[in-house]
Amino acid sequence: MENVLLNVSGMSCGHCVSAVEGSVGKLNGVNQVKVHLESGKVDVAFNQEKVTLEEIKEAIDDQGYDVE
């Protein structure tokens, strides 16, 4: 199990939280995703044998947010 803390810019409201948590949470292999809106961070626990960090970043990017 891998845990990463990603810096994500552009998130500002509850809708942003729902969009990111929803899209990343749907990925096969993601066990947990938590958006920390105040700090602009996304905490993700995932199985690297089922999903890559790039796929997670792409899911966030597809929602219109920038992963730094």
From TrEMBL:
CDD domains: HMA. It holds the Pfam family HMA. Residues 2-68 form the HMA domain. PROSITE patterns: HMA_1, HMA_2. The keyword rRNA-binding does not apply. The keyword Metal-binding applies. It is found in: Cytoplasm. One of its GO terms (cellular component) is cytoplasm. It comes from the Bacteria. InterPro entries: CopZ, Cu-bd, Heavy-metal-associated_CS, HMA_Cu_ion-bd, HMA_dom, HMA_dom_sf. GO terms for biological process: copper ion transport. GO terms for molecular function: copper ion binding. Keywords: Chaperone, Copper, Cytoplasm, Metal-binding. NCBIfam families: chaper_CopZ_Bs (NF033795), copper ion binding protein (TIGR00003). This is Copper chaperone CopZ. It comes from Psychrobacillus insolitus.
